[in-house]
Amino acid sequence: MKIDLQLVNSSNGVFYAGQVVEAVVQVHTQHEEEIRGIKIKYKGKAKVEWKEGSGEEEREYDAKEKYFEHEQWIISGGHILQPGTTNYPVSFILPPNLPSSFESYYGYIRYNVKAKVDREGKDYKVQYPFTVLSHVDLNMDPNNGMPAQLQESKMICCLCCATGPVSAVFKIDRRGYVPGEAIIINAEIVNNSDRLITSSRVKLIMNISYFADGNTRFEKRDVARLEHGPIDPEGSDTWNGDRLIIPPIPPSPLANCNIIQMEYVIELKADVDNTPFDLEVPLSVTIGTVPLHTYLPPPVPMPELPVDPSGIMMYETGGQPITVQPGATPSVPPPSYGDSVFGNVDVTSERSGDERQMMQYTPQYAYYN
């Protein structure tokens, strides 16, 4: 006997909160098989875990959060499977307020569907992890379309001898983006110290906070980066429209999760040689799933058609009227979905009673080419 599980309405295993997950459980047998039943389970959960201290002072912190767990018997009360392949369609509506799938070193948010053939002796099981995305429409917050700028300066002190400051002005074209778009970077770094700046770089950083047992753990993950070369003492360097492409990453903020918080910053950093006095200039950005309308590609021009006196009804010869709503929101092109920039993770079954199935899973996130 063999059991398979296929998602029907998503070829890439991506769903949005509130959507229906449709699947087919396939059972293959070479001869008649007596079973007690076939069960399917949908589950969404989050977990964080980390350790602090060492030896006798070591302490482990962990927390869990369950978003849904739905079990359904496809067949129950005993059944005889006939030779061949039998398909059992199933479906489940995802709750509307789910956090996006998320994977990191100290925690995760995961969704999966599992099927099991319950029989005498060994059960047959299969699981299928899938990605859930929450809707983050950048158009809902006007600040996402506004440019951002920050100016910072730092005195470089070494062996009690102060030199001139290192200063920088850092600008980005807006505050909200979707993966696949480019952050346009403009900056100027002025090195008025007597120290070499070995390099300057701009990084998109994911800042994560984990909460468990009254404690908080912080983690930084680099998402993407650009780098410029050294800046001599009394020298300067300019970033003039450099483009930092955003790879597939989860949207922010990580809503509807109480044990993991996540946000993004884009940071300009100047590394001052042989000192701990590096200059850092951070700006907060939002990563969404729906792009700003003002940054959509221009629509394809429509052919000229007769217009009636109302100005909004157009007709094609022998066809149906086409209504154009004044001021209508431009249609958003559908995104592609790409593998998370952080790669795959091991989602081997955690329960000791389960048959431990080694499985690698890579979250998929919206990406606009």
- At the first level of CATH, the class of the largest domain is Mainly Beta
Distance between the termini: 43 Å
The biggest sheet, with number of strands, parallel, antiparallel or mixed sense and barrel status, is: 6 strands, mixed
Number of helices: 0
Query: What name does the CATH topology of the largest domain carry?
Result: Immunoglobulin-like
Helix content: under 10%
Number of domains: 2
Poorly predicted regions: 302-329, 351-356
* Secondary-structure element order, N to C: EEEEEEEEEEEEEEEEEEEEEEEEEE
Give a brief description.
The chain is mostly beta strands and 369 residues long.
Please specify the SSE layout and strand pairing.
Elements: E1 2-7, E2 14-16, E3 20-29, E4 33-35, E5 37-52, E6 59-75, E7 79-81, E8 84-93, E9 102-103, E10 107-118, E11 124-133, E12 148-158, E13 161-172, E14 176-177, E15 182-191, E16 197-212, E17 215-228, E18 236-245, E19 260-272, E20 279-287, E21 313-315, E22 321-323, E23 336-339, E24 345-346, E25 360-361, E26 364-367
Walk me through the structure.
The protein folds into two domains: 2-135 and 335-367, Immunoglobulin-like, CATH 2.60.40.640; 138-287, Immunoglobulin-like (Sandwich), CATH 2.60.40.640. A hairpin with a 6-residue loop joins strand 19 (260-272) and strand 20 (279-287). It contains no helices and 26 strands. The protein is an all-beta fold. This is Arrestin domain-containing protein 3.
Which keywords apply here?
0% helix, 369 residues, Arrestin_domain-protein, Arrestin-like_C, Immunoglobulin-like, 26 strands, mainly beta, Ig_E-set, 6-stranded mixed beta sheet, 2 domains, Arrestin domain-containing protein 3, 5-stranded mixed beta sheet
